């Protein structure tokens, strides 16, 4: 069976297309009403994984009718200069969304930058005031990769209530938000990290296994419960046997696919859906800004209805 026609593969492309089509409709309406969405990406330094992401953001934003601008900063830019740039974007009414590509160079505290983004323009939900929403079961705007991973699990049709889920990796942007989203859905969640004593023992209990670590082939077939759903979030570049650079995930896909009932391919799994969710979040953020304008200044139909 070839890679593409195997029904065990949970592909992100079709789900991403559905989301982008709906975002495109919302963006066209907002634009016609005088609120064109515009996303600004901030990149500091040169990182290959970020380049792939930004390239896809630009392409899909164009498809969806969302304005996109990339602001690139040299690796030696100071935190102060970056904060000033972010404040400028906050104050610019034409900019409706801001994303800070991670990682940033070590001398810049990422939390300071995330906190500088106005919460209404925070399309990733990484501002400390935004990330709390998912703790309060408010799930309409969540960190994109986490939301994409959970959305792909939903594609299996598995009942999330009571599902045994194991998340490997507990970063603020991927692992932790996945755990909170799944808790909101009623799953029983175990979170593993580098200090976990027996990763294999935990992983083997999972009906759904999420892996976001950044280590190729960390998860092997003997760590997966037969029939499980495996969501591989890793994006790692490595040199293949042919000498070409290729992208692989954190899961040893060839062996695990013989055990799992569902597995996300890399590339073609979580990645494309992450981009689509970012654009969906951009529209959620825009609509929140519009709601604030309405509440602050009033609009004729609201005033007439009072
Ligand atoms: N598809 C997509 O859209 C995206 C993909 N990614 C990819 O996902 C992966 C993870 O990204 P990110 O969360 O940002 O990475 P981080 O490096 O921030 O986090 C990695 C996590 O893995 C844990 N970890 C490290 N080694 C082990 C181990 N041997 N066993 C179990 N856990 C371990 C770390 O734990 P500890 O902190 O305790 O060391 C940490 O929680 C990367 O490959 C990245 O490229 C990231 C973002 C988006
Ligand atoms: N603040 C922040 N948020 C992120 O979510 C974030 C980030 N920083 N920094 C970089 C990582 C990496 N990341 C990717 C998302 C999609 C693809 C993607 O579209 N992948 C395609 C790649 C296809 C191709 O090669 O073009 C796929 O997997 O099929 C890749 C990588 C998001 N990240």
From TrEMBL:
The keyword Cell cycle is annotated on this UniProt entry: no
Domain Tetrahydrofolate dehydrogenase/cyclohydrolase NAD(P)-binding: 143-289
Pathway named in the protein's UniProt entry: One-carbon metabolism; tetrahydrofolate interconversion
Signal peptide (residue range): none
Gene3D superfamilies: Leucine Dehydrogenase, chain A, domain 1, NAD(P)-binding Rossmann-like Domain
Tetrahydrofolate dehydrogenase/cyclohydrolase catalytic domain residues: 10-124
Protein EC: 1.5.1.5, 3.5.4.9
Keyword Oxidoreductase: yes
Entry keywords, A to Z: Amino-acid biosynthesis, Histidine biosynthesis, Hydrolase, Methionine biosynthesis, Multifunctional enzyme, NADP, One-carbon metabolism, Oxidoreductase, Purine biosynthesis
Parts forming coiled coils: none
Superkingdom of origin organism: Bacteria
Catalysed conversion reaction: (6R)-5,10-methenyltetrahydrofolate + H2O = (6R)-10-formyltetrahydrofolate + H(+); (6R)-5,10-methylene-5,6,7,8-tetrahydrofolate + NADP(+) = (6R)-5,10-methenyltetrahydrofolate + NADPH
SUPFAM superfamilies: Aminoacid dehydrogenase-like, N-terminal domain (SSF53223), NAD(P)-binding Rossmann-fold domains (SSF51735)
Binding residues for NADP(+): 169-171, 235
A Pfam family of this chain: THF_DHG_CYH
Similarity annotation: Belongs to the tetrahydrofolate dehydrogenase/cyclohydrolase family.
Role: Catalyzes the oxidation of 5,10-methylenetetrahydrofolate to 5,10-methenyltetrahydrofolate and then the hydrolysis of 5,10-methenyltetrahydrofolate to 10-formyltetrahydrofolate.
Quaternary state and interactors: Homodimer.
HAMAP family (alphabetical): THF_DHG_CYH
Protein name: Bifunctional protein FolD
Organism, scientific name: Mesorhizobium vachelliae
């Amino acid at each position: 069976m070839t890679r593409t026609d195997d029904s065990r593969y949970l592909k992100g492309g079709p789900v991403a297309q559905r989301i982008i089509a709906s975002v495109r409709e919302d963006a066209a309406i907002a634009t016609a009403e005088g609120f064109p969405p515009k996303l600004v990406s901030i990149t500091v330094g040169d990182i290959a994984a970020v380049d792939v992401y930004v390239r896809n953001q630009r392409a899909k934003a164009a498809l969806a009718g969302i304005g996109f601008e990339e602001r690139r900063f040299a690796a030696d830019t100071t935190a102060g200069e970056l904060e000033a740039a972010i404040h400028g974007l906050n104050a610019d009414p034409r900019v409706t969304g801001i994303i800070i590509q991670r990682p940033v160079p070590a001398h810049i505290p990422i939390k300071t930058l995330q906190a500088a983004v106005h919460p209404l323009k925070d399309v990733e939900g990484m501002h400390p005031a935004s990330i709390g929403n998912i703790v309060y079961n408010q799930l309409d705007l969540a960190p994109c990769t986490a939301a994409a991973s959970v959305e792909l699990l939903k594609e299996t049709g598995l009942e999330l209530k009571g599902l045994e889920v194991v998340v490997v990796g507990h970063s603020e942007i991927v692992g932790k938000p996945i755990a909170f989203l799944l808790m909101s859905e009623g799953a029983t969640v175990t979170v593993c990290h580098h200090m976990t004593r027996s990763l294999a023992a935990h992983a083997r209990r999972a009906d759904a296994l999420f892996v976001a670590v950044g280590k190729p082939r960390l998860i092997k077939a003997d760590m997966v419960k037969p029939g499980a759903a495996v969501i591989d979030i890793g994006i790692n570049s490595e040199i293949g046997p042919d000498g070409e650079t290729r992208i692989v995930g954190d899961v040893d896909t060839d062996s695990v696919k013989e055990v799992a009932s569902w597995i996300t391919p890399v590339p073609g799994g979580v990645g494309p859906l992450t981009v689509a969710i970012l654009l969906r979040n951009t529209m959620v953020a825009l609509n929140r800004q519009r709601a604030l304008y309405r509440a602050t200044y009033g609009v004729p139909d609201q005033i007439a209805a009072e």
